[in-house]
Amino acid sequence: MPELPEVEVTRRSFCDAIAGATVRAVVLGKPLRWPLGCAPAELVGRRVLGVRRRGKYLLLDLDIGLLLLHLGMSGSLRFAPGLPAPGKHDHFDLVTDLGTLRLHDPRRFGAVVWAQSQEHPGAHKLLHGLGMEPLQEADFDFQAFLAGLRSSRMAIKQLLLAGRLVVGVGNIYASEVLFLARINPLLPAASIGPRRARRLHQAIIEVLTRAVQRGGSTLRDFSSADGNVGHFQTETRVYGRAGQPCAVCATPIRLLRQGQRSSFYCPNCQRG
Ligand code: ZN
User: Fold this and answer.
1) Are residues 159 and 122 in the same domain?
2) Same domain, 79 and 150
3) The domain that contains 118 carries what CATH number?
4) 47, 70, 117, 207: which one has the fewest Cβ atoms less than 10 Å from its Cβ?
5) What does the alpha-carbon distance between residue 90 and residue 165 come to, in Å, rounded to a whole number?
6) 164 and 56 housed in the same domain
7) Based on the domain organization, do 120 and 196 belong to the same domain?
8) How far from chain centre, in Å, is Cα 189?
9) Beta carbons of 77 and 56 less than 8 angstroms apart
C-alpha cells in the first residue's frame, strides 16, 4: 500500500511537469472507490495550477476547484506525453496539453474526486480527520504531539497507524520509527513522557524524511509518476527482519501481531 513517503515521492515526480497544463479530456475506466463528483466534460478547459499533498491525498489544484487523488491499496500514477491507450487496470486519464496523468489501480481502492474547494463537504469529509503533517515543521508541533500521546488509550504502534494524531506513519514506518526511538510497540501511548516523546517526534521526522529521499518503499509494484521505484525497503532496521540480529545489539528481531498488522521490534533495545 502506498504510504505518505510514496505519495510525496509521486507528487514530486510530476508536480513541476503538470503545472500550467490545460485539460483536454478525461477518460474514465471502471468505477473507483468513490465517484468523480462531476461530469468528466466539466473538467475540459480547466488549468492545473499545482499539486499539493495532505496525508495520503494528492490535491491537484485547478483554476476552478480541485481534484483529490488517493492511491488506495495498489494505485500508482504516471504522467507523460504520448501514453499508450489505457489498459484494463487504468481507470482515470487526465489528458492535458503537457501530457496524460494516468491512475493505474488493479484493486480499485484508489479514487479521484472533484470538489469546488478544500472546504467543500466533498473534500472536507475526506480530509478533516487527518492528523498533523510530520514533514511540515510548522504543522508537527511537539506540544500538540505530546498532548495527543497523553490523551490516548491506545498502544503507541496503533496510535501511530491510526493517523489521527500524525499522518503518514504506516506499518513499515511505524516499526522503524519505534526502533529508532527505542520504544516498545505495545507500550500505552499515554505512558510516554516528554523525554521519550521528543525521541519519538524526532524519529518520525527522520524516518519519513529518509524514506522520501530514498524514493519511498517498493514492496510490490510502487513506482512514481516518472516510473522510478523506491529503495527504502532495502535499508529497514527491523521491518521484515524477524529472526535476524538487531543492528545495534545483535538480539534476534521479533515479530508480533497487533490489530491484524505485523510489528517488528528488538526486545532488548525496545524494552520500554
Ligand atoms: Zn537491539
Assistant:
1) no
2) no
3) 3.20.190.10
4) 117
5) 33
6) no
7) no
8) 22
9) no
- Give the domain range for residue 229: 142-265
Contact call for residues 230 and 237 (beta carbons, < 8 A)? no
Going from the Cα of 253 to the center of ligand 1, the distance in angstroms, rounded, reads 8
Number of domains in the chain: 2
Q: How far is the CA of 137 from the centre of ligand 1 (A)?
A: 30
What is the rounded distance in angstroms from the CA atom of residue 51 to the CA atom of residue 66? Answer: 10
The answer as to whether 135 is a domain residue is no
Cα(162) to ligand 1 centroid in Å equals 26
Q: What is the pTM of this model?
A: 0.91
**Digits of tens for pLDDT over the chain (272 positions)?**
888 999 999 999 999 999 999 999 999 999 999 999 999 999 999 999 999 999 999 999 999 999 999 999 889 999 999 999 999 999 999 999 999 999 999 999 999 999 999 999 989 999 999 999 999 989 999 999 999 999 999 999 999 999 999 999 999 999 999 999 999 999 999 999 999 999 999 999 999 999 999 888 876 667 888 888 888 888 899 999 999 999 999 999 999 999 889 999 999 999 97
The identity of residue 90, as a single letter, is D
Compute, in angstroms, the gap from residue 38 CA to the centroid of ligand 1. Answer: 53
Q: What residues does the ion ligand 1 have nearby, CB within 5 Å? A: 246, 248-249, 251, 266, 268-269
> Could you tell me if 34 and 103 lie in one domain?
yes
The verdict on 62 and 169 lying in the same domain is no
Distance of CA 177 to the CA centre of its chain: 15
> Which residues are catalytic, by number?
2-3, 56, 261
